[in-house]
Structure formats: C-alpha cells, structure tokens
Amino acid sequence: MNTQSFDGRVVIVTGAGKGIGQASAIAFAKLGARLVLNSRSKQPLEETPAAVEQAGAKAVMSVGDVSDERVSTEGVALAIKEFGRLDFAVNNAGISPWVGNTAQCTFQDWQRVININLTGTWLGMKYQIPAMLQSGGGAIVNMASVAALSTFEGYSPYSASKWGVVGITRVAAKEFAGKVDGGITL
User: Fold this and answer.
1) Rounded to an integer, what distance in angstroms lies between the CA atom of residue 72 and that of residue 126?
2) Structure pTM?
3) Could you confirm whether 127 is annotated as catalytic?
4) Which pLDDT does position 179 carry in this prediction?
5) Which of 13, 29, 86, 123 is the most exposed place for a label (fewest CB within 10 A)?
6) Which CATH class is domain 10-185?
C-alpha cells in the first residue's frame, strides 16, 4: 500500500472525540500530521490526544460546539498559532437524533440538527479555506451520510442537513478547486 507522508502538515478534525472523527485523527497522526482536535465537550476528547501522541504526532484540543462561530475561528487560529499553517480539515462533527416524523419534529430539534450538521460544516469551511489558501492550498473532507441520498423516516432534519452538506461542498469545490494558486480540494 502506498501511503502519503503528512509530516509537517496540519489537520483540523471536528467531532474527534469518538467514532469516525477519532479514527481519522489517529490515521492522520500515524502519517505524521499535527492535529487540532475538536469536540463539543472535553470528556470524549480526552482519549484522542493520547492516541495521537502514541502514534508519534502532536495534537492540541479545541473544545466547543461547531455551530458557534467562535469555535470555528478559534480552531483555525489555534492551528496557525501552534503549528503555523493549516493544510487539511475533516468536518465530521454531527448529530443524528430520531425526532419523529416530519410533523412531530419540533422546531428546536430541527434547529439543533441543522445548526450542528450544516451550519457547523459551513462555518468550518468559511474559516478553513482562507487559512489553507495562505498555506498554499489544502483539502477539506465534509462528512455527509447515506441520508443525503436516501430517505429514513424520523430523520427529516438529519437528511436535510446532510443534503445541505453535499450541496455546500459542491459549491465550494467549484469556487476554489484549481481556480487559485494552491487551490482547495473538496
């Protein structure tokens, strides 16, 4: 298997406290990347830096909800402050609660899912893209879901948010991929 070295590269991973986010962070660490790890709360995130350091990489933590604009700006600022650049991002943070059918879903449930899954991804890109362009280019992976392609009863806000993630990713790819020096791959 041919693997690329990420020595000297800097990666932000949101939702890094468990699951796909944690596995992504550890995989980047094994390839030599330095990481900014985000999770909504500190407790689930505490295992990931130890695993990253065990893989031989350095990681710093950014705790906060990705739907809060301050969290996105601080995560990018932390990457620049600690490591001097930003090369990659994995916008993985998300929630998928069952909220009942479309008529049963409350406005609060709808807003919470859309804010974290869709707005959180957009806010990440909004601040990650300029930092990557200053670093000479980069790549962003936005986690969507099969729910962006299929329907599952009881998950209307989740499906809407993941369709939205696919949409904003496609738009940003047209806007930035190969159109500027260094470009951004989405």
Assistant:
1) 8
2) 0.92
3) no
4) 64
5) 123
6) alpha beta
